[in-house]
Amino acid sequence: MNLPAPLEDALAPTATLEPQTLTDHPGLREALVAAVTPVSEGVLSIALQPAAPTPGFPAFDAGAHIDLHLPGGMVRSYSLHNPPGQKDRYVIGVLHERAGRGGSRWIHENLRAGDRLMISAPRNHFALDEQAQRSVFVAGGIGVTPVLSMLQRLVALGKPGHLIYCARSRASAPFLDLLATLTPHGISVQTHFDDEAGSPPDLQTLLSRHLSTDHFYCCGPGPMLQAFESSCETLGFGNVHVERFKAQAQPLAAAVDGFCSVELRRSGLTLEIAKNTPPLGALLAAGIAVEYSCEEGVCGACETPILEGEADHRDSLLSAAQKAGQQCMMVCVSRCRSDRMVLDL
Ligand code: FES
C-alpha cells in the first residue's frame, strides 16, 4: 500500500462514489502533523502524533498502513515505516505522484507541521512472519516503507534480514540513511540503481542465492511484483508475500443478472443488491458506515465478514484459499454470487 503502502494514488477508481464524510468512518482519529521532511527526490517523510495525549495511537504491526483523509473527500493509504508498536507517533513516506489523482500532490503542496488530519486505525495485509528464521525483502523505490518497519522489527527480535533495494537512481531512493543504521544489527542491504547498473535488476539471479525455506517479501511497482512472483515460482519458493500498489488484472466477470438479498446482520436491514455490481455503493446509499479507501480491492479498508452466502471475489488482496473460504469480501470490487448473503454490518 505508499501501500498500499503506501498505496499509490495513480490509481483510477473503478466506481464513482460520493465523497466520503467523516461520519462514514467512525474509527477515525485526529492526528497532528509533527514534522514534514524531504528524504529523497519527490518523497516526504511525515511524522504524525496523536492530537490528544491519551489514549495515543493504536499499536500496529510491521507492514501496516493507515488512511489519510484529505480535503475534497480524498482518502489515501500509506504504510507506516517507524518501528512497530510505537503509540506516540506514526511515520509515513509520501511519493509525489505527478500523474496521480491528486492526493499526494495535495500533501506535497499543502501539508505542513502543525496541521491536523483525520486518520484511520492501522490495517495490515502485509504482515511479517516473525517465526521465520530468515527473511528476504525486495523493495522498489517508495515500496521500501513497509519493509523499513519490518526490518526494524527484525532488529528488535534479534533476527537477520536481507533487503534488495531497487530504484531508478540513488537520488530517488528514500531512506538510505535509515537503512544504514540497521546494517550493524543483522540487516544486510543490497542496492540496485538502474542508472548506475544500466539495466533493471535481474531478480531471479538475486533471489536464487537464498533458501527455499526463507520468507520472501516484495513491495514495489507492478512490473517488479510480476518479476518477483514469477522468479519465486521458478525457484520453487513457497513463502511469498506481496504488497500491491494497484489492482491486478482480474478475469472478465461473467455476465450475471438478478439480485442478491443481502441481510446486514448488525444493522437489521436487508438490501436487494444487483449481482453485477459491487455492494459498496448500495451500502453507502443505505447509510451503512463502511470504511473504504482505494476502491480497487488493494487496501483492505472495506473488508467485510461474510456470515452466510458466497461472493465473487474480484480483489487483489485475498489468497486463493481465502477466496475459497468465503469468510470475508472486499465490498468495493467483489460481487454477491449467491441469491442470499448475510454480512456482518
Ligand atoms: Fe480498498 Fe476496498 S476500499 S479494498
In short:
This protein is an alpha/beta fold. The protein has helices spanning 103-110, 144-157, 176-182, 194-197, 203-207, 222-235, 280-285, 320-325, and strands at 29-40, 43-50, 65-69, 75-79, 90-95, 116-119, 135-140, 161-167, 187-193, 215-219, 240-243, 259-264, 269-274, 303-308, 311-312, 328-330, 335-336, 340-343.
Q: Please list the strands of the largest sheet in the order they lie side by side.
A: 4-3-6-1-2-5
Total helices: the number is 8
Q: Rg from C-alpha positions?
A: 20 Å
Estimated helix fraction:
10-25%
Mean pLDDT: 90
Residue windows where pLDDT falls under 50 for at least 5 positions = 3-23
What are its keywords?
345 residues; alpha/beta; 6-stranded antiparallel sheet; 8 helices; 18 strands; 28% strand; globular; disordered N terminus; binds FE2/S2 (inorganic) cluster
Structure description:
By secondary structure, the protein is of the alpha/beta class. It contains eight helices and 18 strands. It starts with 28 loop residues before the first strand and ends with a strand. The relative contact order is 0.16. Bound molecules: FE2/S2 (inorganic) cluster.
Note the topology.
Elements: E1 29-40, E2 43-50, E3 65-69, E4 75-79, E5 90-95, H1 103-110, E6 116-119, E7 135-140, H2 144-157, E8 161-167, H3 176-182, E9 187-193, H4 194-197, H5 203-207, E10 215-219, H6 222-235, E11 240-243, E12 259-264, E13 269-274, H7 280-285, E14 303-308, E15 311-312, H8 320-325, E16 328-330, E17 335-336, E18 340-343
Parallel strand pairs: 7-8, 7-10, 8-9, 10-11, 12-18
Antiparallel strand pairs: 1-2, 1-6, 2-5, 3-4, 3-6, 12-13, 14-16, 14-18, 15-17
The protein binds FE2/S2 (inorganic) cluster.
